[in-house]
Amino acid sequence: MKNKKSKTREYIESLIIAAIIAFFVRSFFIQAFKIPSSSMEPTLLIGDHLLVNRLSYVMKVPLTDIVFLTLGEPQRGDVIVFRYPVDKDKDFIKRVIAKAGDTVEIKDKQVYVNGKKIDDKWAYFSDNTVMPGNVSPKDNLGPIVVPKNSFFVMGDNRDRSLDSRFWGFVEKEHLVGRALILYFSWNNKPKGIFDYVRWNRIGRLIR
Hints:
Layout lengths: L1 H27 L1 E5 L13 E6 L4 E3 L6 E4 L8 E6 L2 E13 L3 E5 L2 E4 L2 E2 L23 E5 L4 E5 L9 H4 L2 E2 L3 E11 L22
Antiparallel strand pairs: 1-2, 2-13, 3-4, 5-6, 5-13, 6-11, 7-8, 7-10, 8-9, 11-12
């Protein structure tokens, strides 16, 4: 009986230790993230599973958005995961377009930062219609200045992305980390039985 209790105790202790390790790894180092929408296509597809480096920019007090150490700053072109400003319980993923102090303007779908048209090699457009700024900020916006400790982000699929054009800026305290690598990709619209997994995407670095 004593031996049985001892084994049960060891099992429970092992589970507790594993849970604690998993908690600290997720809180400070690596977080898994799944792509739920088409906003980052064609860079990231629905069903892509990726790893996020939580040590890219900030360290926070666990279970809070209190930053106690700054490790770096997102640069233009970084694909970042962050708390959705409208609903902090959700994580979003977008690409950094401008940083604090930058002036952003969008004219007929083209993005300008500090008066210069950027090399927007990531942008994908699925709709040729250009909407005026008084109807929607999707194709025409600004100029606006990015506030201190904030970032202007956009999805690569510019016509199908809910981003800074609509809800504003990402604040430093809401950063989660930088997207690193695809570790799995599930295709929910396969053409055949062998197409459920996008094997050619596994292991890709996210750029």
